[in-house]
């Protein structure tokens, strides 16, 4: 398997089961990429409900992210991917005139038609992403050369990566079809697009990650790495562990649960090594959480991804 370094891609989707550290990993990747000199954009999909708090925004000291990229930190911009904004961009590109697009969007009949269409929500998000990939600086270079997408739960990830193939079966020509093909060109070419799956070394998240590897591949999405996050620090060597195991009683004992956690982590990593066939990036459990964990992970990734 030829390795395309993660930091050399244009678009990186960060996915995985809830609570495993996707947002932390997205923010950390953004920081590591910015440190490597990339012009970074971090994004997440806008919640359709009223703007609540965003944990991605909070990693950069903000409450929410706007729909247009804002500077979050040196070399890092951030925004949400919004259905509404994407649809407006799309209509703008079709009609060539932005005001016409806005008027069209205000038209109740057209809105009903759009919302009734297949995968309206994903299509808007997809187009917004495409628009951000296409953005250029005055010097003609891409405005953002490293776009990190903090994805929602597993199912939504596949809804987005599977969208082009499904819609292209229904719509083969016209502006929607060409936008879908252009997006596929970025996402499904492993030189430019990849997915990172974040997991913790526990049985259920690992099972879900292995399923996600298969799901992503079935939507022709490369899986660039699995980040095995929050690996417990193991203070014992093999001989010590074996000696301890003999000493431990069958009943409960203070500290025994931690030893069992170490054992589950070891077995989980073995399972991933055997079945995932994807490079594994190991990230330890840090003593900090929130912004502290992000900074520690960024530091760690900067070293890991250089190797
Ligand atoms: N390697 C780590 N060490 C310590 N804490 C971590 C680590 N990775 C994530 N966390 C913490 O775990 C919690 C969940 O992480 P988060 O990135 O919000 O998960 P997700 O986005 O997958 O729901 C957060 O409090 C975060 O700070
Ligand atoms: Mg999150």
Overall description:
The chain has helices at 22-35, 55-58, 83-95, 98-106, 108-116, 120-134, 154-161, 163-170, 174-187, 203-218, 238-247, 256-275, 291-304; strands at 11-15, 40-45, 70-73, 76-81, 146-150, 193-199, 223-231, 280-284. The longest helix is centred in the last third of the chain and has 20 residues, at 256-275. Strands 3-4-2-5-1-6-7-8 form an eight-stranded mixed beta sheet, with helices on both faces. By secondary structure, the protein is α/β, with parallel strands linked by helices. Helix 10 links the parallel strand 6 and strand 7. The model has no long low-confidence stretch (mean pLDDT 89). The protein has one domain (6-304): P-loop containing nucleotide triphosphate hydrolases (Rossmann fold, 3-Layer(aba) Sandwich), CATH 3.40.50.300. The protein is built from 13 helices and eight strands. It binds adenosine-5'-diphosphate (ADP) and magnesium ion. The site of adenosine-5'-diphosphate has 17 residues, from helix 1, strand 7 and helix 13.
Helix content: 40-55%
Task: List each distinct ligand once.
Answer: adenosine-5'-diphosphate, magnesium ion
CATH level-3 fold name = Rossmann fold
What is the total tally of β strands? 8
Low-confidence stretches: none
SSE class: alpha/beta
Q: What's the number of structural domains?
A: 1
Biggest sheet statistics: 8 strands, mixed
- The name of the CATH architecture is 3-Layer(aba) Sandwich
Mean pLDDT: 89
CATH superfamily: P-loop containing nucleotide triphosphate hydrolases
The largest sheet has its strands arranged as 3-4-2-5-1-6-7-8
Give the SSE string. Answer: EHEHEEHHHHEHHHEHEHHEH
Shape type: elongated
CATH first level:
Alpha Beta
Strand content bin = 15-25%
């Amino acid at each position: 398997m030829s390795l395309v370094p993660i930091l050399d891609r244009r678009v990186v989707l960060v996915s995985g089961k809830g609570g495993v550290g996707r947002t932390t990993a997205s923010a950390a990747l953004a920081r590591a990429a910015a440190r490597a000199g990339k012009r970074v954009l971090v994004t997440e999909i806008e919640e359709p409900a009223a703007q609540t708090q965003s944990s991605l925004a909070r990693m950069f000291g903000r409450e929410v992210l706007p729909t247009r990229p804002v500077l979050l930190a040196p070399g890092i911009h951030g925004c949400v991917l919004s259905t509404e904004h994407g649809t407006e961009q799309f209509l703008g590109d079709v009609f060539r005139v932005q005001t016409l697009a806005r008027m069209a969007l205000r038209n109740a009949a057209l809105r009903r038609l759009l919302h009734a269409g297949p995968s309206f929500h994903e299509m808007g998000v997809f187009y917004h992403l495409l628009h951000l990939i296409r953005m250029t600086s005055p010097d003609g270079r891409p405005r953002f050369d490293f776009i990190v997408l903090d994805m929602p739960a597993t199912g939504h990830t596949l809804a987005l990566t599977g969208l082009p193939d499904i819609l292209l079966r229904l719509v083969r020509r016209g502006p929607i079809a060409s936008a879908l093909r252009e997006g596929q060109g970025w996402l499904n070419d492993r030189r430019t697009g990849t997915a990172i799956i974040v997991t913790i070394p526990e049985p259920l998240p690992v099972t879900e990650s292995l399923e996600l590897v298969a799901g992503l591949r079935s939507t022709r999405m490369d899986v660039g790495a699995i980040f095995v996050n929050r690996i417990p620090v193991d203070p014992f060597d093999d001989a010590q562990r074996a000696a301890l195991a003999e000493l431990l009683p069958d009943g409960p004992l203070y500290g025994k649960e931690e030893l069992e956690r170490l054992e589950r982590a070891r077995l989980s990593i073995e399972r991933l090594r055997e079945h995932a066939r994807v490079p594994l990036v190991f990230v330890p459990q840090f003593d900090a959480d929130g912004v502290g964990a992000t900074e520690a992970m960024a530091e760690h990734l900067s070293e890991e991804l250089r190797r």
